[in-house]
Amino acid sequence: MQKIPNNISDSPPINKGAFTHPQSRTNQRALSEQVHMITAPDLSFSLPISRPHFAGRRIAAPRLSWFPHSRPIPSPKIVAAVASKAERTSNIPPPPPPSTLYDVLGLSEGATVREIRSAYRIQARACHPDAAASTGSSGATADDFLRLHAAYSILSDPTKRAEYDRELNAARMLRRSPPRVYRFSGKAPQRTWETDQCW
Amino acid sequence: MADEIYTVAYDSETSADERAKPVPADIAIGIDIGTSKCSFAIWNGAEVEVLQNTQIQSTIPSHVLFKDEMPPEGFSYEVPRSGAEILSGSDAFNMKRLIGRVDTDPVVKSSKMLPFMVQTFGIGQIPLIAVPVNNVWRSTTPEEVLAIFLAELKENAEHKLKRPIRKAVLTVPISFSRLQLTRIEQACAMAGIHVFRLMPEPTAVALLYAQQQQQQIIHENMGSGMEKVALIFSMGAGFCDVAITITAGGVSQIKALLGIPVGGEDMLQNIIHYLFPDFGSLEKMKSNRLLRIAVQNAIHELSSQTSVEVKVDLRDGKIKSRSLTRVEFEEVNHKVFVKCEKLIAQCLLDARLTAEDLSDVILVGGCSSVPKIRSLVLSLCKKEDSYDGIDPLEASVRGAATEGAIASGASDASGSLDLLTIQVTTTSLGIRVDGGDFVPIIRRNTSVPVRKEMVFTTANDDQAEALVVVYEGESRRAEENIILGYFKITGIPSGPRGSAEVGICMDVDTSNVLRVYGGAHLLRTQQAVSPFLEVRMPMADIGQGWSVQALVKIYGSTMDLAATPPNEVQK
């Protein structure tokens, strides 16, 4: 798992123990967040994916509780990502719900922090309940904003984003998805027979 | 997707009368009820107009004057400067410091020095205030006094605008608990005002800042614009609040909020005590009042002078005179300044930012003119000067009126109302577990709207019922936080302790309404046993903490919830 090539140019290294991120401040923030996560387990972490509308019907047994549930299910993020990926390819008529947090923000996986923030703001103006009320756009609910904010809070945090990316990649590896295309060919190591032997 | 929903209208494309047209009939008024001064403003279709009262003042002292005729019909629109005015009746003020507090609160205790009676018994009950009318003590509550004042304010506004006022956006201190906010709503209801929204004071300023940044971008045609990070330091007579906001493209994200009930009033009391240690008793109420005003004026003068002469004619043949230098003033109030410094440092820490990240520092409120306050804020933020585009005394009320216009659905062709503020929670919200620990479910500084859930378990074998006690605060001990209410979950499936699952979900919407949901799950499934309870909080009132103690006494720990170990939650 440790050697999955990381195709996102600006996310911190996978190995949590050794931060070598060039920007010291980001690094600091990431560390302080880590401390925060240790002292205070934040269950909202899995919120966006376990939301019924978002996660799709496949993850878990139908829920009778009427509030969106962030209850533990085995590796929810991975399952969710895979499930909706499958949905998308198997020609199910209704438009699939956004499957990754990047899709929620309408970004590609290589998006920079600046792009993430900007996308969050633009989307917030559309789906924040206050904004939706004044523009009169129908259909936008607090849930849309909650989903957007959950995606943003993970992707705007270097540590959480790295973790999410890793899980996303791991899920794809497990599904034996088609060979990955490296967008940043200069940065990603070429897979060769030798490197494959190291797995 | 987002592009279709909102459009940006440009200034040049609209004529003047087109711009003045869309004013919804029922636009909410903005009210800034300060500890010492009040103001009100409204969006007039093109800009925010700060309204004046019948005495042509735009800031009105927050005093209610009870005159000797019954019922109290008098209303003071001036700080009673003249002795005749003071002697004609008794005034009550500083209600914002007293509202929604119990008599064991240190802030209430410090109000004992005020020239009217604050009746306390020290038993955790709501204090009464009393003023002498016709030589008889007349008792009232802080809410009532505030309501009288708000009603007068409303009448003034209606007279000015020639239409009834129903809705209002009010600014409140960050440190207000939900119980205090409820009391403000009650006072508004008594005055016939529907509270449209209560917004923390510095976030109203943040809105104004976002508006100015947005206008600048439209004028300079700079595209989406840069992200601007601003620290807003707001200090009035009663409260000191700090907010950090990130603004770009008309959206301001509040990153952190922090406030304490410390303000100019504390400085004033320190100085009175320093200069005239023998004063402050109720017997000498009238001279105490005169003294207060004299010292207050002296402190104001110290903003521009380095020393001042405090001279009080006590009207009983005695004249008290003392000199006060700025250095003395700063020494006496050293503790206040240290508290302000700590507040700023903590707020930066909460926002995970450093002084270098800040683009602007905005100082507002009456105390922003105190030289020491200015210098300490600027040096902590490593800035040469503060942002000068905002009037420090009208910032809150203008922000509130802008929010009132936006929330009322007013639109403006120049795009100056095309704004969004993403607010955060001011305190952590959670429940009591393990016999007295506080577990936050929604943490402080979480963006709203927010909805979070946690799973808890039973503390005893075969426990069928659980008491969910909801608190707000930052202490790890539940009893040190403020209780908002409690409810009972029944029908928990029997099993050894730690096996049952109880889900608690908290939801705060954009109007800052807190709802708590709770219910038990069937064992090893995620299905709810019974319909989940939905409770709107706060359901308790101030000084009702004892009823939980009673419940605990009856049931002991038989109805306790326990925190689920994190590893069990993950797996």
TrEMBL record, chain A:
Pfam families named among the record's database cross-references: DnaJ
Region of interest: Disordered: 1-27
All copies of domain J, residue ranges: 100-168
GO cellular component: a single term: endoplasmic reticulum
Biased composition (Polar residues): 1-12
CDD domains listed in its UniProt record: DnaJ
InterPro entries in alphabetical order: DnaJ_domain (IPR001623), J_dom_sf (IPR036869)
Database matches in Gene3D superfamilies: DnaJ domain
Protein name according to UniProt: J domain-containing protein
Organism: Platanthera zijinensis
Classification lineage: Eukaryota, Viridiplantae, Streptophyta, Embryophyta, Tracheophyta
TrEMBL record, chain B:
Signal peptide segment: none
Pfam name, any one: HSP70
GO molecular function: ATP binding; ATP-dependent protein folding chaperone
Glycosyltransferase as UniProt keyword: no
InterPro entries: ATPase_NBD, HSP70_peptide-bd_sf, Hsp_70_fam
Keywords tagged on the record: ATP-binding, Nucleotide-binding, Stress response
Top-rank taxon: Eukaryota
Family listed: Belongs to the heat shock protein 70 family.
Name the record gives this protein: Heat shock 70 kDa protein 8
